[in-house]
Amino acid sequence: MSERTLKIALPAISVCLFLVGWSFYVRTAEVSAFVLPPPEAILVALIEMVQTRELWDHTLVTVTEAVSGFLIAVGLGISLGFIMARIPPVEWAAKPFIVLLQLIPKIALAPLFILWFGFGLESKIVIAAALAFFPVFSNALQAFKSVEPGDKDVFTILQANPVQRFYLLDVPSALPVILTGTEVAVVLAMIGAIVGEFIGGNEGLGYLAVAHLQNLAVPELFAVIVVLAMVGLLLYTLIGRLRHSFSAWHVSSETA
Amino acid sequence: MPFDARQDRMEINVSGLTKVFGDGPGAVTAIKDADLTMERGEFVSLLGPSGCGKTTLLRIVAGLEAPTKGTVEIRGNAVWNGTRRSAAATRPVSMMFQEARLFPWFTVVDNVALPLRVAGVGRKERTERATAICETVGLKEFLHHRPNALSGGMRQRASLARALVTDPQLLLLDEPFGALDAMTRDALNIELMDVCARANVTTILVTHSISEAAFLSDRVVVLAPRPARITAMIDMPFDRPRGLDLQQSMSFQKMVGELRHKLSEGE
């Protein structure tokens, strides 16, 4: 068999073996279905849920929160990163806050944001944005700072104005590193949205998971987790595609 | 002002130029009391070992590094007003660096057209002009390639095209072909000489290759390190146009010998 077919066949086989092993274990060891349902029960629950509007409404809520938070984080992260890279005194002044905010586990701020922004979408968007901000910001700061001095010389000789420098040099130079940060950020935005839903509110996949837990509807709980994994994968793939198309010229993506 | 032909032909006037990096006991004098005047269309090389301040001198003329003392004038306009560079004085300047400094997010033709884009020339016109200049430096088949796909020599050709696309009056070259193999280097030097002669552009070349300096220049300025300074200026009395066979001639070999001697005197 060629390496190509093996690369497709082997993961499929290992996943199948895992599921069969799981099912077999649950049955023979008589594990309570409240602890670990067999995978086929989860599949049945998933198929039932997919046919209801409810699931899609909750999914839409979670995606809206995560994507909004992500976009806010990207906007803020890139602008603040650029300003601090360009005007060092701003970075020096902001440094203590940056360090402090980086040290705090951001997720611990979630209850506070619920307190400030209520039980609706806004608080979840803020939590998602807070979690997603740092990877974008620190990558942007680093990337804008490390624009090659020799490349800047070229633009000085060309007498480019600050706006031209920004969109012809700074942004394209920094973009590959910034987009790497956004790949991490989109995953964190999902986590932020879900944790927000755990804590308060009555919408979203995070809420749905908690609701199923309280009803001891364990296969449904697993089904929600599967949906969450799918949504996360979708967003991550989208950003990955975006990065690839934007930085096709970048060395790291060429060798990848 | 009375008419003065010499004044009219004067392109560059460097006087008492000194650059000190840092201060206190750690200060390093990169160049000390350099004087240099150049006429329009002249090709001058700054020749010396590393640490002699030749690149610093060039960067001050280019407006990239402020001098500590002294003045630089291009066509009578001061490049530096204290540590502020004058955009007007440096407008006719183009520069090439050791690295091609092409931008990987643009194609070759867009890289070459970049100076025109920055100057506000419309897309259609700048692409036409960039395409034309690419063809003259042998990049016809590579117009829509990414710079990363090009060899080192081809990249420097593109860099040369970018430097020439604005029809500069003053071309500053910081060892642009230093990293290339000898054959590519010869070919590019011939082309460079051609282009400079045709466009009547004034050129300063920084190099540490004695034969390259002698072959290309009307005049070679020899610099020495510790303290970094100009130690000699020697005219290259070879007829133009020059071909590679000039390098085999007795007179050329003698000149190379003299330059080598001047260089070692400065040590």
Report on this structure:
The complex is a heterodimer of chains A (256) and B (267). Chain A has 256 residues and is an all-alpha fold. Chain A is 83% helix and 0% strand. Chain A is built from 11 helices and no strands. Chain A has helices spanning 3-28, 39-50, 53-86, 88-103, 110-117, 121-145, 149-157, 162-199, 204-214, 218-246, 251-255. Chain A starts with a helix and ends with a helix. Chain B is of the alpha/beta class. Chain B has helices at 5-9, 54-62, 87-90, 108-118, 123-136, 152-164, 182-199, 210-216, 250-266, and strands spanning 10-21, 28-39, 43-47, 69-74, 77-78, 80-81, 84-85, 93-96, 170-174, 202-207, 219-224, 229-235. In chain B, a hairpin with a 4-residue loop joins strand 11 (219-224) and strand 12 (229-235). In chain B, helix 4 (108-118) crosses helix 5 and helix 5 (123-136) packs across helix 6. The longest helix of chain B is centred in the C-terminal third of the chain and has 18 residues, at 182-199. The N and C termini of chain B lie far apart (44 Å). The interface between A and B is medium-sized, with 18 and 22 residues.
